[in-house]
Design a protein that fits this description.
Largest sheet: 4 strands, parallel
Number of strands: 14
Number of helices: 15
Helix content: 40-55%
Structural class: alpha/beta
Strand content: 5-15%
Strand order of the largest sheet: 10-9-13-14
Shape: flat
Order of helices and strands: HEEHHHHEEHHHEEEEEHHHEEEHEHHEH
């Protein structure tokens, strides 16, 4: 087997870049770096220039050649050159064994990095979840005094259950159903109790450990839920400085909320209708971003009247606790809007309720809904009605 001194003498070119080097510029590079317990032996050494040596540093050879693939050809040419000069393949065979070991080490390092990343992501997810749970935005009030108090989502689940089942006492089973431990459940009960005083403990030991279950003290006659956390949130508007027509819906349906896209239900006629106005026959078949781009190209913007609400299913008639979007600010920001199209009865009634001054300031049109629930209007009927508003904008140009 070749020794280090002879290897240094035979290596007239850099193992990584192929540069010709005088003997005083030749440096030893460890294939498996010393920081990874690589040995200073000929089978773990290649001769390279100072620049490549510094570039590789303590990186494993596999990672280095993967990052700089142009150096891989030079590396294998270097091994062939040494074999040619020595007249045998002992050196390249020995280096191949080291390369195999380096590959195994690289694989283990990669797995460790992935494990650390998964732990970091899991920790971040748990932190975000806890922060969302801790937001105290669900409102209750005392029936007699009318005084309000606010609790978080998990506490609301607990309180709601006891409001419906005041005699329920098996808190251990309930905690399991909620996916939390008994200690966490007791802590949340104590938080609720600090506000309400409705829970009592049947028996407690001297050191404060709960021995038996909770009971409620006339809870249904004391507390009432006055608001729920919204389960529907509208999207950001699709609009730009050239937009002249603003189409407002009420609140996206279940399918749209799942897809996070306006009018995502396959039976909603909206995109087919817009295809007629935009002269794009297959608009409804395009991807979502291209749909929005085509509307903006035709000066058509999208948004909803309602910003958040509670609703079971997709019907507008089920909307409760609605909060409107800030339409006045949007219209100030985009002053080219001339016409407002209100898609359906609910969009119109909510708009009229919250923004009566805008009805007088803008050309507002109450238009038949494109929803599949509005089955009495065919696509041609919708086009004839909507054309009155859309064409007015085009003729005014």
């Amino acid at each position: 087997m070749i020794n280090l001194q002879k290897l240094r003498h035979l290596s007239c070119i850099c193992a990584y870049c192929g540069k010709v080097m005088p003997i005083n510029e030749r440096t030893n590079d460890h294939i498996i770096p010393r920081s990874a317990n690589g040995k200073t032996e000929a089978n773990n050494i290649v001769i390279c220039c100072q620049e490549c040596n510094g570039l590789k540093g303590s990186t494993l050879i596999n990672d280095f050649l993967e990052k700089y693939p142009e150096k891989a050809e030079c590396f294998y040419n270097y091994l062939n050159m040494i074999d040619y000069q020595t007249g045998n393949s002992e050196y390249s065979d020995a280096v191949s064994e080291v390369l195999s070991e380096s590959l195994r080490m690289a694989y283990k390092r990669k797995k460790r990095r992935e494990k650390k990343l998964r732990k970091k992501q899991k920790k971040a997810t748990n932190t975000i979840t806890l922060k969302q749970e801790d937001i105290q935005d669900i409102e209750y009030s005392f029936k007699l005094s009318g005084q309000k108090f606010y609790i978080n989502e998990l506490q609301a689940k607990i309180l709601d259950y006891y409001l419906k089942h005041p005699n329920f006492s098996d808190y251990k089973t309930f905690a399991e159903n909620l996916g939390i431990g008994k200690t966490r459940f007791i802590r949340e009960i104590c938080c609720i109790n600090n506000l309400t005083g409705v829970f009592k403990i049947k028996k407690m030991s001297e050191n404060g450990i709960v021995l038996n279950d909770f009971i409620c003290d006339n809870i249904q006659n004391k507390i009432i839920k006055t608001s729920e956390k919204p389960n529907c949130q509208s999207f950001l508007p699709s609009i730009d400085e050239k937009s002249e027509i603003l189409i407002l819906g009420s609140m996206p349906g279940v399918k749209s909320l799942e897809e996070q896209q306006y009018y995502a239900h396959p039976q909603n006629r909206f995109w087919k209708l817009m295809g007629l106005f935009c002269n794009v026959e297959n608009l409804h078949d395009l991807n979502y971003q291209k749909k929005l781009q085509n509307l903006l190209k035709n000066q058509i913007a999208l948004w909803d009247v309602i910003q958040s609400c509670n609703r079971d299913g997709s019907l507008d008639s089920n909307i409760q606790n609605e909060v409107p979007n800030n339409l006045p600010d949007l219209l100030k920001q985009f002053p080219n809007i001339k016409i407002i199209c209100l898609n359906g009865n609910k969009a119109y009634t909510a708009f009229k309720k919250y923004f009566p001054d805008l009805l007088e300031k803008y050309n507002c049109y109450k238009l038949p809904s494109t929803s599949p629930a509005n089955a009495k209007y065919k696509l041609d009927d919708l086009y004839n009605e909507w054309n009155k508003a859309i064409n007015l904008s085009k003729t005014s140009d």
